[in-house]
Amino acid sequence: MNRTTIEQTLASLQTRPTKSLGQNFLHDEAAAAWIVNQLDLRPEDHLVEVGPGLGALTEFAVGQCRSATLIEKDGRLAGFLKERFADKPNVEVLHGDALDYDLRTLFPHGPTKVLGNLPYYVSSQVLFAFTAEPSPVGRLVFTLQKEMAERLSAEPSTKEYGAITLIVGRRWRVRYVRTLPGSVFMPAPNVESGVIVLTPRDQSELPDCDGRLFNRLVKEGFSQRRKMLRKMLAPHNLDWPALCAAIGAEETVRGEALSLKQWVDLTRFVEAHADPEKFNAKAQDVHGEMFDVVDDENRVTGQASRHTVHKEKLKHRAVHIFVFNAKGDLFLQKRSRMKDANPGRWDSSAAGHLNAGCDYEESAQRELQEELGVSAPLEQIGSLPAIHETGWEFVRLYKAEHNGPFTWPRAEIESGLFFPIEVIDRWTAARPHDFSNSFLQSYRLWREKRE
Ligand code: SAM
What we know:
The protein has 451 residues and is of the alpha/beta class. The protein folds into 3 domains: 198 residues, 3-Layer(aba) Sandwich (Rossmann fold), CATH 3.40.50.150; 70 residues, Helicase, Ruva Protein, domain 3; 161 residues, Alpha-Beta Complex (Nucleoside Triphosphate Pyrophosphohydrolase), CATH 3.90.79. The chain has 16 helices and 18 strands. A 7-stranded mixed beta sheet has the order 4-3-2-5-6-9-7, sandwiched between helices. It has a 4-stranded mixed beta sheet with strand order 15-12-17-16, with helices on both faces. Strand 10 and strand 11 form a beta hairpin. The longest helix is centred in the middle third of the chain and has 15 residues. It starts with a helix and ends with a helix. The relative contact order is 0.08. The structure holds S-adenosylmethionine. S-adenosylmethionine binds next to strand 1 and strand 3.
């Protein structure tokens, strides 16, 4: 959209740019096309745009993707966009606040691309919302106040490097791709803008660490940036020389001099110091586990190791547990990408095999405790036969009610979230490959019993 079109459109809507909504409209069409290009849109993609305004970016994006959701807080502009894109059935315009948007509804679309020339007053909150774990987002292109964009993409030992760099950077790669002068906007803000591209980090890029502890330590470490880190982290009573040796830093170091990897190593050190037993607990020796082997009638006929059971497709037993909160949402876990079976897929709230000699109900309670750190009364929903789709497991499905919070072993579970049933229905139908087969079977069983 050029300047004249923007002015005429605002006039026809009998409105002016609203400062409190951060309305600065982009009138440089070449810049708009270039920004949209950074999203690398594919015909199969779903797009979300935050604050589309009059559609300066949108007009270049909608033709390149399968579908789009536009979230605009200004009712007059949302009304205009609805008319403007009325001939595009796959473009949905939502009149509302992007901070109220339920991101869980995006999971059925697969990794979503997110675009935003963000209103400055709310940009960090929008960024945190869209990057929070687990995120349905595959790529974000945001235009922000230049100072903020520089902070997000900063290198250690610079004045821009801070807690936000590390908290976002631990899970996302952030690239600063372009500076925009105020003059490309109408009205022109008296600051420059920066365009950044965020893509999710691969889990193998950094050692694993407790994200919540990482965020806490980083905030503590940067709360007074001129002070030495030793002083800032003193309340943790750490063996400081040992910590510095472990992370390869001087004992007089300040938080701003540590790289992202060193902050992750520091978190791991603090975690090990706080609870060495838990930290050193190795993932179970899965190959050594013994299971009961059963016949076609689910009667125990002998025992075999996990390895043999799976290799020879011997029938055995497992439990799945569906945990619902008071609202009726179902908690799904995302399996760790380090797992040998179904890595990175979504699964039941908790699930696992029956060890030799154990019964279903005690195994379900054990899994609930081991995987989510809670216990709750269980109700049996039904059972599934041992067939190819269940991995030759006679599964018994239980349900429980619990509102969390849960704590899970990171070697097993990457993240988890309560999802509305309506979202899971759409998600399992659209992207069954996002789920483990035995979850899909269990979910179908639960659906049948409910109807
Ligand atoms: N994308 C348009 C462009 O580039 O010309 C407009 C960008 S303007 C900087 C920010 C837009 O975000 C405005 O249209 C404003 O009404 C909208 N907005 C402000 N706060 C919002 C919020 N909380 N949720 C959604 N949209 C918001």
